[in-house]
Amino acid sequence: MKLKGINVEAIRKDFPILKRKINGKSLIYFDNAATSQKPRQVINAISKYYSLYNANIHRTIHKLGVEATEAYENVRDKVVKFINAKHREEVLFVRNTTEAINLVAYSWGRANISKGDTILLTEMEHHSNIIPWQLLAKEKSANLKYIGITDDGFLKDDEIKEYLDNHPKILAITHVSNVLGTINPIKEIVRYAHKNGVIVLVDGAQSVPHMPVNVQDLDCDFLAFSSHKMLGPTGVGILYGKRELLENMEPFQGGGDMIKEVHLNYAKWNDLPWKFEAGTANIADVIGFGAAIDYLNKIGMENVRAHEVDLTSYALNKMSEIENLKIYGPIDVNYRCGVISFNIGNIHPHDVATILDSEGIAIRSGHHCAQPLMERLNVPAVNRASFYIYNTKEEIDIMVNVLKEIKEVFKI
Ligand SMILES: Cc1ncc(COP(=O)(O)O)c(C=O)c1O
Asked: Could you check whether 2-30+300-409 and 44-297 share the same CATH topology?
């Protein structure tokens, strides 16, 4: 089962949950776009922190505190390397992608968006990259504009140019759609945006876990992503921001750790990155995230991507043989990630997902926190199967066979 540098059989042994039986069947986990499973290396790193060196960080002189601080800050260095940030001050620990985007909308947005300004988004955004901007637009009487998508799931090129030529203040755009799987040409878009003086925030929730992402190469101004979608624990997200931008932004939250000095009537903020990390951090889970990054680095992000391209093209071929099964998004795997959204005739996605679950297969059904995209596709909901490093073609075959049975039973 050795696959372009990935030894799936060995990898699967690291994930205790994959031994689980669901309804008497071996678990097939195809809900990776929602959250990934965790290898024992991550689980053990968290357990080791609590068992051996649990202490608060940054303001402790004792041994445990020093060890915990070192472990926590080492993870920042790992993230810096993982996304190739230029400076370690540019990597902030937050709770998740959602909080990272809210931080920018709040701290950058409230200082830089005024009445009549335009905030540019796309029709394929997750609610996390819509709602913070809606809140900001409402507060500032600013306008929201959305780049549309073509019927085959790409952003409309002419609208990208036209809307950027009109000088919005910021473009907040997903790197990879969590529904269509589309990989947007972020580097080219950023270059065009910058020519027009537009700041670009990239939602990397579905790209950073699945392919090499290099912030200096993309030249994006902000990048947001979540640990839990890339083998790490929940409760940890990353906001990358260019140093000059972060330096000029006011804090998002106030409290301990984010200050240098506090007096009764004024305070001085801490240096970056701690200016944006108020209160006791999620130390254990950041340390767990470090183990997840080590794990992915050992495999190599090029190999992660190659494995997913292989699985996705296999699944697209097999699924397209099923009559009346509609797949959303680009068909060419060079432009899509390992996320396949589909509907079978008019069978409700919750029925499909329930039947698959009875066979031990976990997929997602619903609007996937992308209701504007559902409206654009003219569907209330879709099914979504999404893959990761531990998935196999055999698992895809099992799912496809159940999908064929569903089609027979519903006489579609
Ligand atoms: C594209 C995209 N953006 C943002 C998010 C939000 O991530 P989180 O819930 O970790 O904040 C998700 C989660 O599914 C996503 O797929």
From this structure: no
Q: Top-level CATH class of 44-297? A: alpha beta
pTM: 0.98
In angstroms, what is the span from residue 184 Cα to ligand 1's centroid?
Answer: 16
Q: Is pLDDT above 90 for 274?
A: yes
Catalytic residue chosen out of the listed positions 34, 369, 374, 412: 369
Dist CA 342 CA 363 (whole Å): 11
- CATH T-level assignment (fold) for domain 2-30+300-409: Aspartate Aminotransferase, domain 1 (3.90.1150)
Distance of alpha carbon 381 from alpha carbon 392, whole angstroms: 26
126 close to ligand 1 (CB < 6 Angstrom): yes
Is the distance from the beta carbon of residue 182 to the nearest atom of ligand 1 less than 6 Å? no
Please give the average per-residue pLDDT across 67-78, as a whole number: 98
**Could you read off the pLDDT of 159-216 as tens digits, one per residue?**
999 999 999 999 999 999 999 999 999 999 999 999 999 999 999 999 999 999 999 9
Q: pLDDT class for 4, splitting at 50, 70, 90? A: low
The 10s digit of each residue's pLDDT in 29-64 is 999 999 999 999 999 999 999 999 999 999 889 999
